[in-house]
Amino acid sequence: MTISAPTPVRDLVRYRTVDLVTIAALAVALGVTFWAWGKAYAGISGLAVFSYPPSAGLLGGPWLLAGVVGGLIIRRPGAALATEVAAAAVSGLVPGGTEWGMSVLVSGFWQGLGAELVLALFLYRRFSLPVAVLAGALAGAIESVYEWNAYYEGVFDAGDRLAHLGFFAASGAVVAGVGGWALTRALARAGVLDPFGPGREHHEAAAV
Known about the structure:
Number of helices: 8
């Protein structure tokens, strides 16, 4: 289990320049990924395997990555939310935008909030795989509830809504949770996260 050392509250809430630059870099990289996934989404969701409409929630995980990864790396209050919203903004501003327009900012807020709440629950001290999985799952669950009203009002009955929530949460747990945790570890091994907790933990483990 990854548990960071206790951090004074003043230092925990104080953002360094490298934190802000990293949030921006993650937002650009993952925002472009969001945009590309949005372009592929229409064709993939139309496949026969997704003929049960709520199962489209299984495709939501990639859009939840930014909040989980930003939170695991920056480890400060608000980092998960800021990274997810910034990435959503980038996806909407890429030439051609998305089919959802700038409403992606609303989705980015709810998705980022889900990841943020889990990290806050653990007081920004636990960043293990189970915590990442929970963060991805809650991000997916909250986004699902938002989409019930934004896109599926009058389309989903109660059973469909619960199924969509389950599919979305599962996708968030696997793609954003497990995938985000694996991506963070890979970046730490590559040496690009040395100013952050994951980078320091990698070096400490390698020195043992």
